[in-house]
Amino acid sequence: MDKNGIRSYLGCAVCALAITPIATALRANAQTSSTDPSFEVATIKPVDPSYRFDGKRFWAHVTPAGASYWYMTPANLITYAYDVEPFQVAGGPDWANTEHFDIEARFPDGADKKDEPKMLQALLKDRFKLAFHIEKRELESYVLVVGKNGPKLTPSTPDPVTPAIAATANPAESTAGEQPAKPKVTQNKDGSTTGDMGKRGTMTIKFDPETWTQRFAWSKLTMEDLASRLSICLGDAVHKVVDETGIKGNYQVTYDCPMPGGRPRRPAGTSPAGLLPPDPQDGPSLVRSLDAMGLKLEKRKILLDVYVIDHLERPSEN
Fold first, then answer.
1. Is 318 among the domain residues?
2. Domain check: are 96 and 207 in the same one?
3. Could you report the per-residue pLDDT of 168-215, keeping only the tens digit for each?
4. d(CA 45, CA 188)
5. 2 in the Ramachandran plot: left (φ > 0), alpha (ψ -120 to 50) or beta?
6. What is the pTM of this model?
7. At what angle do helices 74-81 and 116-127 cross, to 10 degrees?
8. Domain extent at residue 18
9. Per the CB 3.0–4.6 Å rule, which of 150, 183, 227, 270 could disulfide with 243?
């Protein structure tokens, strides 16, 4: 799946998610200049707190005409716009992590879709009055390694090769990035959703409201890609996952990912704290998923850029 597909959280996913920090020389709190790309028009609506999240209308969806950002907190929007992980955003008001918004934005004529993240950055500065600075911090992270009994991975099914392709194919050229311009999405009878990404295989997601997890099933995934996608499963703690399995190639991968932001509140009186217990990294769902593949996570520390919010306001009226 391409970057926009991952961000849609059919890769919250998605959410999507290798770290590519913005250069530290960036003056994040500077005013957007008139030459910076921006949306032609954008509407922002707060999501009703009583809305029952179902896992379907979520994250960023980009088309040639514009972009939609559904059920995203300001913290979500910042991580998406600047292509960083949740643990790389610090500070700011509490509501930045709890209040959700739906945004519909339209590109100006002749806009390049590649400028969409910069347009969202401009929107955050203009409508949310976002200002922040970047600090280097030593953060707790994880490495993905092979378990003590070795890997238990199923290789992906090889791509079919036609005689015409076989005769002209260049072994040095990779087709791993090839995929349809618009992945085909299918709603399955069991409530799951499958995205067909061409030569990059399929990805199926099913949301479980009882455990507040997403089950991801990929038909074709490298261990490096798996590690990057596990970051979003580790909650609000400071985590980055680095692949140190040494395993090459594509595999069929299935894992359960706790939803970002924690589980929803129970009705008053059903739990002493009013919250369902969290599903931490050493909880059952993610650990069992990795163990079934002969993999595990180990802690370590790493020096990373952290985007510290200096100022943020609830968005201005449309």
1. no
2. no
3. 444 333 333 344 445 588 899 998 999 888 888 999 999 888 777 889
4. 30
5. beta
6. 0.54
7. 140
8. 3-137+307-311
9. 227
